[in-house]
Design a protein that fits this description.
The protein is about 40% helix and about 25% strand. With about 300 residues, it is an alpha/beta fold.
Length: about 300
């Protein structure tokens, strides 16, 4: 059933009562004086009660009935404002599914905050993750199997757009019992003759290249795509390794202690980026994750 009065009439009446003038109410409501006067008159007609007493050149004053109606009118206006706020909140709610790609060795460092903190902020959004090598994630972006992906900047060539979410530098890991483990930092020349346990992944294959760029010859003992195996072998004293991402604890999978040492030689800073196809218009889901990434990391 439709009402006999409008929200606009109530708004104009409240403004006139609060400001004591039809003219002032018109200015506050960005309406003409005639429109406010007519709206209040129509409201009085529909409610069958006089709300205001008009006094020539002296504005308006509330009647006793008007004072009682004003209290209800303000509650109606507050409820209408709350309805607008709730509707605005609903319109900003993220829905659907956001599929995020991730270079597999980055996953333990970047995916937990995404599936925990970011997803908790948007409970109506389903966040799924696919993992793989850098090239696989680039293909997934181009083919539309994911909307955004976490990669190293070196893996995110054109036609991708990126934003940096983390920076890190390569470092050396040694067994805690190694004679060099007590140093605050280390030079590549200090370890070049030692057995190198090399992590076999595109982002880490430059360990040998780093040595060669310093005129050193790597002594490769073992190559593996399993980064936890790298850390286990090093913790047992079977060699050293050069890694990029830093673990929160210096302990191997077997519970043996490790030491992480910064490299004194000049090394390139590695950038972890969030990437997406540059020719694709981002969904609001993806844009929200990109914006949140600066806070999450």
């Amino acid at each position: 059933m439709s009402s006999d009065f409008t929200l606009r009439q109530i708004e104009y009446f409240e403004a006139a009562a609060r400001l004591g003038s039809i003219t002032a109410a018109a200015q506050a409501c960005h309406a003409s004086q005639a429109a406010v006067s007519l709206a209040v008159a129509d409201l009085e007609k529909n409610l069958a009660v006089q709300l205001l007493v008009r006094r020539k050149a002296k504005g308006v004053v509330l009647t006793d009935a008007g004072a009682r109606v004003l209290s209800d009118a303000r509650r109606v206006l507050e409820a209408a404002g709350e309805l607008r706020r709730d509707a605005h909140s609903l319109s900003n709610t993220l829905h659907g599914t956001l599929t995020v790609g991730c270079y597999v060795t980055l996953a333990p460092f970047v995916i937990p905050p995404v599936l925990d903190e970011f997803a908790a902020r948007h409970p109506s959004l389903t966040v799924t993750v696919i993992e793989g090598a850098g090239e696989e994630m680039r293909d997934a972006l181009v083919e539309g199997r994911c909307e955004v992906a976490f990669l190293y900047a070196d893996d995110s060539n054109a036609p991708l757009t990126t934003t940096t979410v983390q920076t890190t530098t390569p470092y050396v890991i040694l067994s805690a019992e190694h004679p060099l483990a007590h140093q605050e930092s280390i030079s590549l020349s200090d370890v070049a003759d030692l057995p190198l346990i090399m992590f076999d992944a595109p982002s880490a294959r430059n360990a040998a290249q780093m040595l060669r760029s310093e005129g050193l010859s790597p002594n490769i003992r073992h190559v593996t795509p399993n980064i936890e195996l790298v850390r286990c072998l090093v913790a047992r004293g079977l060699g050293y390794s050069i890694l990029v991402q830093k673990w929160p604890v210096d302990v191997s999978y077997e519970g043996k202690p490790l030491v992480a040492l910064p490299i004194r030689d000049s090394t390139d800073v590695r950038r972890v980026v969030l990437a997406w196809p540059e020719a694709v218009k981002l969904t609001r889901r993806a844009a929200t994750l990109i914006e949140a990434a600066q806070d999450l990391f």
